[in-house]
Amino acid sequence: VAGIRAEGARAEEAACAEARSCDASRHAEEACKRAEERKQAANERVDRAKHAEEEARKRAEEALRHAEEARNRAEERTQAANDRVDRAKHEEEEARKRAE
After folding, report:
1. What secondary structure does DSSP assign to 24-82, as a single string?
2. How far is residue 66's CA from residue 71's CA, in Å, rounded to a whole number?
3. What is the dihedral of CA 3, 4, 6, 12, to 10 degrees?
4. Nearest C-alpha neighbor of 15 from the set 1, 31, 7
5. Handedness of CA 91, 94, 98, 99 (dihedral sign)
6. Which 8-state DSSP code applies to residue 14?
7. pTM value?
8. How many CA atoms lie less than 13 Å away from 77 in the CB half-sphere?
9. 27 to each of 18, 23, 31, 37, how far by Cα in Å?
10. 73: left (phi over 0), alpha (psi -120 to 50) or beta
């Protein structure tokens, strides 16, 4: 009887150990799954940040391009105005010479 009881106790202890092992394994799997979900969420945040950075870079390049175009147009208008001033001075000089 004592041997049967001891065998039963060993079997019960083995079953409990197996249950604890399974429980620990399940907890480890759940922790691993949560870690994987956190990793995926972090990767998604990185992807969104990279996309936002790329969009900001494109907007900055476009703004720079527009500014350069505006500067070029302003330089062209300034040159045209300078050319008109030069022509007016030349015409004025020619008129003065003719008047003399």
Report:
1. HHHHHHHHHHHHHHHHHHHHHHHHHHHHHHHHHHHHHHHHHHHHHHHHHHHHHHHHHHH
2. 9
3. 160
4. 7
5. positive
6. H
7. 0.56
8. 6
9. 14, 6, 6, 15
10. alpha
Query: What is the reported pLDDT for 1?
Result: 67
Residue in the structure block whose two tokens are 């994987």: 36
3-state secondary structure of 89: helix
| End-to-end CA gap in the chain | 146
The identity of residue 34, as a single letter, is: R
Radius of gyration for the alpha carbons in the chain, expressed in angstroms and rounded: 43
Q: What is the pLDDT along the chain (100 residues), one digit of tens a residue?
A: 677 777 877 888 888 888 888 888 888 889 999 999 999 999 999 999 999 999 999 999 999 999 999 999 999 999 999 999 999 999 999 999 988 8
